[in-house]
Design a protein that fits this description.
Keywords: Calcium, Metal-binding, Repeat. With about 210 residues, the chain is mainly alpha-helical. It contains 12 helices and 4 strands.
């Protein structure tokens, strides 16, 4: 089993155990997403993107409720109202997508955030705060990817697929910001109990 698969399996087990103990709507939503693995929060985000038909980056309450139902989240209407008020920070009647992701992602210690940012900075060769295909050249070797080896993809297509792992599901533009990178690793972090192990995993993965 790969490291990512093992982390996902641990995350699912841990989230299901914790879910049975909590009554807080935000924590219930977070744990139900994490119970689907590290891509769980991104999966809900994709549903919201589909529901946001005008591509405004915001949802009203009915759209938010429809997204929860579509994703089969076990949250009743009253809990959904509480959640929406949490996400609608300015009381405008809509929730901002980026604020939703930042609020929903599991909290991380400063030590974890620091090592994630070190990995980001290593990939961001130009230092402009955004990882692009050009940044990956010489840092990430795509020539061993199965689809490159069998001729299905070019190296640039491998790079783009790699970036899509981290890119916001709301705006897949082939560019990964610091927040998107943090959001991805917040999901991975949720399955790892100790800072020491998480930091070791990151340093080994990115040769920091």
């Amino acid at each position: 089993m790969s490291g990512t698969a093992r982390h996902d399996q641990e995350m699912v087990i841990k989230a299901k155990i914790e879910l049975s103990k909590t009554t807080d709507p935000l924590e219930k939503l977070r744990l139900q997403c994490l119970a689907r693995g590290s891509a769980g929060i991104k999966g809900l985000a994709r549903i919201f993107r589909i529901i946001d038909r005008d591509n405004s980056g915001t949802l009203d309450f009915n759209e938010f409720l429809r997204g929860l139902q579509y994703y089969a989240v076990m949250i009743d209407k009253e809990e959904a109202k509480q959640l929406f008020q949490t996400f609608d920070k300015d009381g405008s009647g809509t929730m901002d997508f980026d604020e939703f992701i930042v609020t929903l992602r599991p909290p991380m210690s400063n030590a974890r955030k620091e090592v994630i940012l070190q990995a980001f900075q290593k990939l961001d060769k130009t230092g402009d705060g955004v990882i692009t295909i050009d940044d990956l050249r010489g840092v990430y070797n795509g020539k061993y990817h199965p689809k490159y080896l069998n001729g299905d993809w070019t190296e640039d297509q491998v790079f783009r697929a790699f970036l899509d792992n981290f890119d916001s599901p709301y705006d897949k533009d082939g560019k990964v910001t610091t927040e998107e990178f943090l959001n991805y690793y917040a999901g991975v972090s949720a399955s790892i109990d100790t800072d020491v192990y998480f930091i070791l995993m990151m340093k080994n993965a990115w040769k920091l």
